[in-house]
Design brief:
This protein has four helices and seven strands, in the order βααβββαβαββ. By secondary structure, the protein is an alpha+beta fold.
Length: about 160
Amino acid sequence: MQIREIEEKDNQTIERIIKRSLESFNLNIPGTAYFDPQLNSLAQYYKEQPNSKYWVAVNEQNEVVGGVGIAPFGQELGICELQKLYITPEAQGMGLSKDLMKEALVFAKEHYTHCYLETLKKLQAANLLYIKLGFQQLERPLDGSEHNATDAWFVKDLSLLS
């Protein structure tokens, strides 16, 4: 697998991956990434945001099979958000989420002091990965959260990133 920055040609594919993943957990509901207005133009969205990037994972057939993003979180100085980490079912179980997150966190450390993320408790495999990578679970979301359907929140002190 290769990890590279998203390109405009990847927009439809990654949107489809995100939506299908959320649908598979019955999370195609308001308050999740499913209804984010920028979902069909992620390449442009991340280029326009300061200190932001979105990466895609590409398989041997040059097909996008997943992705992850980093962007500033609300008005909080020094805090970024890990966003839209989704992998196709066929590419799961290969450590790809971990590889994508490591790429994103190295970039985040260059620009931020902390990385925040929002998820759902029912996404148990994802939550275990976040804890394994040093994220601490919070009791409530940070102020400025846009995804009100989430029920699990994590933060990582990027100074602890090795």
